[in-house]
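Morning!

This is the sequence you dropped in the shared folder:
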Amino acid sequence: MPTSKRAPGVLSSLAISPAGTRDQLVAELIRHPLFESARRYREADLADYDPATALVQRILIMTDDTSAGV
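The structure's back. Tokens below.
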């Protein structure tokens, strides 16, 4: 594909971005061809995939089991 028809790379897009806030930057990135089919999730929707959250949940379950005499 000729260079003139290619979209700028993600890093180039970030470097030239006039975005002043995180939300503006995310809005610009969403328009980038690399992410055009991506979905945006809320932080709570991703909690199950966060290793720190999973560790805390395991500790809470273990603590609860211990206090219940299991």
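Headline: DSSP finds four helices and no strands in the chain.

More detail when I'm at my desk.
O.
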